[in-house]
Amino acid sequence: MSGGKRLRKPSAAEPIRKRKAPSRSTATVAEPAMDIAVGRRIRDLRRDRKLSLESVAAETELSIGFLSQIERGLSSPSLRVLATLADVLGVGIAALFGNSPSGDAASDSVITRGTQRPELKLWRTGISKQLLSAAGGDNKLNLFLVHLEPGGSTGDELYTHDGEEAGLVLDGEMMLTVDAETWSLKQGDSFRFASRRPHRFSNPSDAAKAVVLWVNCVT
Predict the structure, then answer these.
(1) Which of 23, 44, 139, 186 counts the most CB atoms within 10 A of its CB?
(2) Low-confidence ranges of the chain (pLDDT < 50)
(3) H or E element: which one contains 144?
């Protein structure tokens, strides 16, 4: 099992966001579909490891009901929750992305075409991540293109997970907190820190999107 101790794990009482009946708009349909796909991957990883919902709930301090809602695609998990689950399942977050959209990734997993990027949309928090490296649950090093919508954030609570991360702000502005210090990073600024250090990040702008090239290495 990977990962260190989290400063403050998501509360077992974290609210369950239930879906209304989807409309015909593309955005409304795509959001629950993404949650369903992520939930299935979490469920499959849990079952592959022969872990019960009860044991995962105990490790993550999330309620069994909330975990069940996530696995059935009835709740949209935050990045903090996904990082917590990935640690308990012994994988990096990249393992939750699934296959490339085209299903035609390079056979040697060296090349990822621009049209083949798997994407994880955390629409409730205004964060989306495109996986630029080849998808695979066993990969230790993964490259992402992170889009932060105006006001997008990982939340007010600091969180930790296994590994190390670094990045470069390509566009816009990002607020990054690591331990007790907060920085404003703008285009051209970069960062690196051990992921076990409590951290959070956000886009402080109420009008402009931020784009960050992000590297995660699972130890």
Answers:
(1) 139
(2) 1-27, 105-107
(3) strand 141-148
